[in-house]
Each structure stands twice: as structure tokens, then as C-alpha cells.
What does this fold into?
Amino acid sequence: MSELTQSELEEIEEFQKYKFDTQLLIEKTEEDLDDFEIRDYIAEHFEGNELLVVGDEDLIKLHFHTNEPWLVVAYCATKGDIYDIVIENMFRQAQGLQG
It folds into this structure.
């Protein structure tokens, strides 16, 4: 079994820093959606990693690892109609896969 490099250890540590995998869809209600604006706001105001915000002016998919998913969901609800919300505890998932 090979040993992990310092870089690989740091990457694992950064990944394990955030507990919840948060995913949802935002659908346009009144104003057009702006995926860049939403991504920039989340990156600036919420702590986390693995941020992915993709879509168009009508529908956006969000994926984000954070310890406070409820704050992200609350913000997204101000941008449009949110649905298909999935919040998974990645630590519990990892423990289940080990056993």
C-alpha cells in the first residue's frame, strides 16, 4: 500500500472539513436567474467547497459541500422556486460504506 503525499493528505482534509452535500434546483419565478451571480454570492458568503452552479436564466442546479446547508437553501429560496432539495451527511455515508 503506497503512502499518501502531503498534497493528497491536504486534499482529503479539505474535503472532510464540510459535512453536508447540498444539492437543489432553482427555477425562475419572476426575474431571470444568473448562475454567475448566485455562485459568486455563495462563494463569498458561505463557507464550503466543491461549489457548482450551472444552468440558464430559467433553471439552475446547485451542488455545494457545507456545514450549514440551511443557510444556502434559505438564500436560494430568495432567488426562485427551489425543489429537488437533497442534503446528505457525507460522514454518515462514508461510515455506511466502510461497514
About this structure: The chain has a mean pLDDT of 88.
